[in-house]
Specification:
Blueprint lengths: L1 H9 L1 H7 L16 E3 L2 H10 L7 E2 L14 H9 L2 E4 L9 H5 L4 E4 L3 H5 L44 H18 L4 H26 L6 E6 L3 H6 L3 E7 L8 H12 L5 E4 L6 H7 L5 E4 L13 H17 L2
Parallel strand pairs: 1-2, 1-3, 3-4, 5-6, 5-7, 7-8
Helix pairs in contact: 2-8, 3-7, 7-8, 8-12, 10-11
């Protein structure tokens, strides 16, 4: 309980950030756009920017993984009726490549070449300057088939890094302002609120994680690299790279050796996949097991939605790694 209490107190600046007021925008009588996000984390960021305008829909339901998903007829109808579709890119949602090549909707692809190759920059730089760059990225029309988890050496889980979350918000904002200029005033104030509050939260998390940088751990799915690098945490390995395939006995034996030698104090599972393998790795050891949800399936939409997701995602790391 002490760890949870201290962690919560370090997030107090976030509550203060939400108290900042911005001038209200005048309501516009034009019909708001129909917005669809591919996965819940993208929906959460979009819902913050669209607060007071429209509530975005999401394709993947809670508990589903983009690595193993196939579109249903209801999903196809949702895409057909959408004015705007926001997705990470083919590196994550391979199942969307063909449908989006056939839609007339504005498509916003968030994983850009610049984001892939750019180095980590300090998130605080956005406190003074967050450029509203062009956000309408037409996707490449690939027809490749696969198991849905071939990232091509690219980590597509960009929403787990607050720095990239700010870039995602900028891209969505820029595209919506360009195509729906009558919404600019409210979109501007929502982006300002999002930026200020996320910077405050990021500082609090940096402070909370600083003493835990030498506490090793294992993860089930090798998907948290951007979060782990941003907060300087020590991941020692992963149960699997591809969660649709069972890890080999040799690899599991190596992971268990890591736990038994006390190098890993915690092993993290995910609600989207079975935790039985994780349980077998830690059986008979002192290592703790905790569950993290990289897809935010229980977060309420609206202002502060992404920040609530980030706090929920970070909490198990802090609690499990704390001595």
């Amino acid at each position: 309980m002490r760890a949870i209490s201290r962690f919560s107190s370090l997030l107090m600046p976030l509550a203060l950030a939400f108290s900042i007021s911005f001038p209200a925008a005048h309501a516009n009588q034009e019909k708001p756009p129909s917005v669809v996000a591919s996965i819940i984390p993208v929906q959460l960021i979009a819902s913050d920017l669209l607060d007071g305008i429209v509530e975005p829909e999401v394709l993947l339901p809670a508990g589903a993984s983009p690595h193993q998903y196939s579109l249903k007829p209801s999903d196809a109808r949702m895409l057909t009726n959408a004015d705007v579709v926001i997705w990470i890119g083919p590196e994550l949602e391979r199942f969307l490549v063909k449908p989006l090549s056939q839609t007339s909707a504005l498509t916003i692809k968030l994983l850009t070449e610049e984001m892939i190759h750019s180095g980590e920059e300090d998130v605080d730089e956005h406190e003074h300057e967050h450029h509203h760059e062009e956000g309408h990225h037409e996707e490449d029309h690939h027809d490749e088939e696969g198991d849905g988890h071939d990232h091509g050496g690219v980590d597509p889980h960009i929403w787990l890094d607050p720095h990239h979350a700010l870039a995602i918000a900028d891209a969505i904002h820029a595209a919506l302002v360009q195509h729906f200029p009558h919404l600019k005033a409210l979109l501007d104030q929502n982006l300002d609120r999002f930026t200020v509050s996320l910077i405050q939260q990021d500082r609090a998390l940096m402070s909370a994680f600083a003493p835990l940088s030498d506490r090793g751990f294992l993860v089930f799915h090798d998907a948290y690299g951007r979060f782990i690098e941003h907060y300087n945490l020590m991941q020692l390995g992963s149960v699997t790279i591809n969660p649709s395939r069972k890890p080999g006995a040799k690899h599991l034996g190596e992971l268990r050796d890591t736990v038994e030698t006390s190098q890993a104090v915690c092993v993290f599972s995910e609600p989207q996949f079975s935790s039985a393998v994780v349980a077998s790795i830690v059986a008979g050891t002192d290592a703790k097991v905790s569950e993290v949800d990289p897809l935010g399936q229980n977060v309420v939409l609206g202002a502060g939605a992404y920040q609530r997701f980030l706090a929920d995602f970070a909490q198990p790391f802090y609690t499990c790694l704390a001595p």
